[in-house]
Structure formats: C-alpha cells, structure tokens
Known about the structure:
Layout: H1 2-19, H2 22-35, H3 40-52, H4 56-65, H5 72-85, H6 89-98, H7 104-116, H8 120-133, H9 139-156, H10 171-183, H11 187-206, H12 213-233, H13 237-249, H14 255-269, H15 274-280, H16 295-311, H17 315-328, H18 333-345, H19 349-362, H20 367-380, H21 384-392, H22 401-413, H23 417-438, H24 450-465, H25 469-482, H26 487-500, H27 502-509, H28 515-518, H29 524-528, H30 545-553, H31 657-671
Helix pairs in contact: 1-2, 2-3, 3-4, 3-5, 4-5, 5-6, 5-7, 6-7, 7-8, 8-9, 9-10, 10-11, 11-12, 12-13, 12-14, 13-14, 14-15, 14-16, 16-17, 16-18, 17-18, 18-19, 19-20, 20-21, 21-22, 22-23, 23-24, 24-25, 25-26, 26-27
Amino acid sequence: KMAGTTAALWSEVNRCGQNGDFARALKSVNKILQISKDDVTALQCKVVCLIQNGNFKEALSVINTHTKVLTSDVIAFEKAYCEYRLNRIENALKTIQSASQQTDKLKELYGQVLYRLERYDDCLAAYRDLIRNSQDEYEEERKTNLSAVVAAQSTWEKVMPEDLGLREATYELCYNSACALIGQGKWNEAMKKLQKAEELCRQSLSEDSDVTEEDIEAELAIIHGQMAYIMQLQGRTEDALQLYNQIIKLKPTDVGLLAVIANNIITINKDQNVFDSKKKVKLTNAEGVEHKLSKKQLQAIEFNKALLAMYTNQADQCRKLSASLQSQSPEHLLPVLIQAAQLCREKQHAKAVALLQDFADQHPANAAEIKLTMAQLKIAQGSVTKACMILRSIEELQHKPGMVSALVTMYSHEEDIDSAIEVFTQAIQWYQQFQASQTRGNAQGFPKSPVHLSLIREAANFKLKHGRKKEAISDLEELWKQNPKDVHTLAQLISAYSLVDPEKAKVLSKHLPSSDTMSLKVDVDALENSHGATYVRKKAGKLTGDSQQKEQGQGDVKKKKKKKKGKLPKNYDPKVTPDPERWLPMRERSYYRGRKKGKKKDQVGKGTQGSTTAGSSELDASRTASSPPTSPRPGSAAAASATSNVIPPRHQKPAGAPATKKKQQQKKKKGAKGGW
Length: 676
C-alpha cells in the first residue's frame, strides 16, 4: 500500500513538473519525504521546486542540512545557482570550482559568475569555449553574453574590442555593440547602432500580439537611456535631460537603470537645481542597486553623493562619504580632492593644502595631479611664488610647453625675470638630453623637434622683450642655424648684436636678402580701394594747361590760407574809444555798483504794509564810505578795514523778515489743495 502511495505521489510530481505547477509538485514531494526523509531524488526535486518558486534561501537551507545525502557531485549546480541568485558570488565561484565534474550547466553559470566578478578576460575565454563546444537552441544567448563581455572590457577597462564576427541580427547584439563603441569614444557610430537596436526591438516585440505599447517602451528604456548618455557626452545636455526624465516617468522596474539615469541627471545639475538632485539621489539608494551595477558605476554614484552633500552645505555628510570612499580606494584621487574642496569652502585653505601634501607623499604615482591642485589653491591665496615652487617640483611636467608657459607667466607677474629664464633653460636642456639619448650611435643625429625649437624661440623672444639681448643671442643663433632662410630670426639676431658687437651685426647683415628680392608685387590702387582701407586716395580731376603749369612750377610752394576778417559789434562806433575793461567780467569792472533791485531809492520794506525798512539808507553798501567794494578792482587791495563796524549785507537780518515768512506760510496753507 505504501509503495502504491509513493508511486502515485511521484506520478503527481511528474505531471505537475511538466505543467510548470511547482507549488503542487512541492506538496507531493514533501509527502514523499515524510515517507522517506533521506530520499536523494525527492530532496533534489524539492530543491528544484523551491528554486522554480524563487525560494532560494530555503533551497540552500535544504542543501546545507542534507550534506551527507546531497553531496557536491549530486547538487553542485543547484547550490551554486542559489548562491548566485542570493548575490553570494564568491561562494558560488568556490562551489563551481569544487565540483568534480564540470557539466555544461556549470560552465554556463561559471561564465555568469565571472562576469559579475568583473573578471572579463576569464569570462571571455569561458564563453568562447561554450560557443565552440555547444550546439543547441541557446547559441544566440551565448553570443549575446559574449558581446556583453567585450562591451564591458571596452567601457570599464578601455580595452580595444575584438571583432567577434557576430551578425547583429538582434537588438541585444546591436545594443552591446553600441556600448563597445561608446567605450572607444565613437559616439556618432554608437548612436546609429542604438537607433538600429531600437528599430529591431520594435519589430521583434510588435510580432507578439500580447505585447502592448507600454511594454515596448519599457523594453526600449535601456536603449533610450544609452542614447541620452551619448547626448550628454556630446554636450547636448538639454536633449539628454529631456530623454532621461521621459524614462523616469515610465517607472521602469530595473533599479540599476533608474540609478544610472538619476546619477547622470545629478551630474548635469551640478551645483544648480540641488532640490531636484536631492530627489533624484533617492533613486540611487534603492534596494538591490549594488547588485545591478559595476564597481565603477557604484563608485561614481558615491562620488556624486559626496559632491551633492558639499553643494548643499552638508559638511559632515560630505566628510563622512569622502572618508568612506578613501578607505575603499586609498589610491583614488577624487575622495581627497572632495575633502580638500570642502575645507576650502570652510575657508581652511592651509588644512586643504596639508591634506593634499600628505596624499602626494603617500602616493607618489598620483602626486602630479595633487600638486597641480595645491598650486591652484596657493594662487587663490595670492601666494604665486609658492605656487611656482610646487609646480616646479613636478619633474615629469617641467618640460611640457603648457607648464613652461604657466610658470613664465606667473614669474613675469611677480617680476622675477631670472626665474622665468631659468624655467626656459631647464626645459630646453631636457629636450637636448632627450635628443642626445635618441641620437646615440648616429653621427648625423636628428633635427630638433618642433616643440624644442618653439621653446627656444619663445625663450629668445622673452629675453628680447625684457632687455636681455646678450642672453638671447645664443638662442637666436641656434634658431638661425636650424633654418638659415629664416629672415625674421636673422633680423632679431642682427638687432641683438647691434648693441653688443656692431661689427658682428654688420657681417650678419650681409646675409639679409636684397630689397629687390624682398619686393612684393602689390597693386597699390586696388589695396587703397579695398574694403576696410583706412585711407583712400582721391582721384585727381582733369587739369587745364595753365593749372598744370602752375602745379609744375609752384609744386614746392605751400599754398597760403587767407585770414578771415574779424566781425565787429553792430553798435561799433570808430570815433568812440573802446572800453579798456571790456574783456573783464562785469563784476570785476571798476564802475560796477551792483545790481539795483528797484527804481526808487527808498524801497518799501517787507514788513508791515505801508512801513519802510528801518535804516535802509544805512544798509546801502554804495552809500557807506568804509564798506569795501563788492568785487575788488584788478590790482587793488581787497581787505576790509579792521575797525569797520558795518555788518556786510549777506549777514544782515532785515527787520520784519519773520513776520513776512509767517504770512507767506499762511498763504500757502490757504491756497493748498490736496495736501499731505
């Protein structure tokens, strides 16, 4: 009876398995295990049912509790697969490697595990071996995975992708090919591939009647995201931002895609629109993101989180994130640069420089970039000389034209011409030593490189500009030796020698070309009449015979201009002698007596109506003998008598003035309309 029951249960398990009903199959398996708890086949079936239902933890627990029965040879693939799905990638690798027999299923899983561990070279070899030794309906999927590995190598390791010779018949293959092109910087070609991938995707999905337009757009989201990324790289930030936001509105289920898009939007916003960036950063914290993205993608997201914290004045959060990043990647530049930037925002420039100096001492390989940042901070503080010292300590950059130019400019700003010339000298010597190492064993040698000659010319011009003609001569001679036909260099050399050795200058001047050889055939009329000419010669009119003779005979005599007669005033009388003081202002003339205010001598005062101002005759300056003139005559003394007790008119307070002022105020109030 028990045997019959077990057989019936196995029959039920088999039927449910074929129908894909693994939940019912699991119930039947559990009944079998109640009868025979160590049945290997039943335990295997239970593990498979749990995996099919997505219960990976429970499946792994069953495997681990029955290790005596379920040995690695029996259950290796299922165990490794559960560990892989639970993101225990290292454990999955150990399980696969410990298996006594490497089945095709284990090899497939091995390739996936290597890809997740970012061991792309080993992964590529594994998939090549699978494609070579397998012939089944999964060949297209293997080729897709192979192209994904090549794309990852191009993107993250900057390896030139191999031509796999794969026919890009599916949108997945086209998409992976586009990713490989992006890694090479071929953005236009990559965009064309993505457009082709979009077209193939629409064609493939539209053949299924059950697929809606929303399903197609969801599948196209990753292709559109990559298109937006290319737009961002090309500087088309507005187009990229628009496409990114369209994808977010679709609410795709891929948390990895959403995290990358949110991160890219944050990089577009930078220190602007930080409110939007703070909303977008939440998408990068979604559960499971760390298992969907590569290490470099996750690292970039963390860097941007630290920068966003700095821009939003969250100093503690910025320091915490950057310190965590530095502990994860001690040799990486960005964490220490972010910490230094935060210190600078807090006006702690000295601490920032000290931090950068410590990093440069600990990591000499990255010292050059750090020292460039230190120099920039010193310049911001106004310590140009110290910045120059830091820059000159970067030995691998001392001979670079950009570095030479920067140092010379800064030393010139500090008026340290000797140091600037020393910079030129050291750079020229570096190129001389480099050339000597290249020409060893070759008697003829090589001509100087264009960069070397350019530095010599710049050094010569700089010395000439700052009056160091003696020092410039050797540079100019070297340049002329390299190109004897260079007339400009020869002219500079002659000019320099003219102050040092005039005889040498005369000898060198013989090498100058004659004026005939240097003359240029120029159409003067065409040049003068050309657009933009500052002077245009007037066309001469036709001259008569007499005028031509006059012009020829009196060509050297300057034509005299006739003087115009001065205009006389309308009331001019030749019989009357002009006023000798007519050139003086009226106030300074001797006969000026001031401006009369009225015709009557005794004017009515401004006090009570009908009354006269008290002492008006006494206050008349013209009647007072001791009063000085309003404006002194030219050449006369302007001092007033010290004993005079007369108050000057401008200090006199007329009688009745307050009453008048009050009356005027009353009138104003009476006639005012629409006041305050």
